[in-house]
Amino acid sequence: MIELKVQAIETYLRRVYGDDARLLAAGDIGSLDAQGMKGFGYGKPLLVHFETGGEVREAVFSVMKGDKYGHQFYWDRAAILMFQYETSARMARHVHPLGLGYVDGSDALIPMKDPKEFFIVNEKLQGHDYFLDLERIRAHGLLDRDLETAREFARWLAGVHAEKLDDPPLYSRRIRNLLGASECILGLVDEAFPRDYAFFGGDRFRALEKRLIDWRWKLKAYAHRLSAVHGDFHPWNVLVTDDGDFSVLDRSRGEWGEPGGDLASMAVNYLLWSLYDHEKLAGPFRELYTAYFGEYLERTGDTEVLEVLAPFCVFRGLVIASPEWYPDHPDPVRRRLFNFVSNVLEDEVFDWEHVNRYLE
């Protein structure tokens, strides 16, 4: 809950306009009745009169109220306020923004001045990218620790996914985003493949999209599955040390989602590496896939995940089939990936033990 006092408003004004800034009055829009401003921050604008440089001025303070329409988290709301700050003054007759800021953990108002871009600073972790292990395995075969690493991935995911959240609108949002977000399925269809692509033309993409609508409606019944997730668990986002420990990078697409998304992401990459040397999932990568998938199901007991997995396999399959992201695939590899993307949607339950039939 946000609870702001008069002092917080006055402190903000001084940070922005200088030490001579002075709050004169604050109240609801249309009224300057003084108030303590308790509850400010839930979508109710606050009219402020203040003096700076000998001039009396007016401003309206407001924040967005969280809702189920894609504004559940403060970063959702921040994106909209940033857009308004950046663009409003460029429209004729539109109200001009006077400031942009955030409310910190102590309910202080912190201004941001002329933001252009944002950055993040992370700690430096030890280890090497897991995809390098997959390259080594392809060239030289499995080491004893490789299967255990795959099982440890599954155990870690099982622990992450054990945290549940009862929020059906958020689960619906995640499924909606899986299909429609610019960095997910429809975004990939539009941007990650050439027009009239020889391997998968427009008719096949349209058929794929129509089939995915059926799956969207099916998954509406699975909102009870909403769980903590990583969101982008693949070999380029995992660092592995020589003693078998690992760390993960780049949590994406929200804190909560469908566990099947994480499970599919790594599993589909085992399939990719195998296709470079076989026409199917075989050899050391089948062993890794089986160790990973089997360990996850044993640890979680979540066989229901097989009922929802197909659209997540499509998403990851489109990523690794894209000539933009993976330009060097041999033609047979790319064809089998597209077969996988098309065929996997035709089973109501993902047949993880016989995955090769989706490649035909």
TrEMBL record:
Domain named Aminoglycoside phosphotransferase: residues: 123-293
Segments passing through the bilayer: none
Pfam families in UniProt: APH
Keyword line: Transferase
Entry keyword Glycosyltransferase: no
Protein's UniProt keywords contain DNA damage: no
Domain of life where this protein originates: Bacteria
Enzyme Commission code(s) on record: 2.7.1.-
A single GO molecular function term of this UniProt record: transferase activity
Protein name: Aminoglycoside phosphotransferase family protein
Organism: Pseudodesulfovibrio methanolicus
Native organism taxonomy: Bacteria, Pseudomonadati, Thermodesulfobacteriota, Desulfovibrionia, Desulfovibrionales
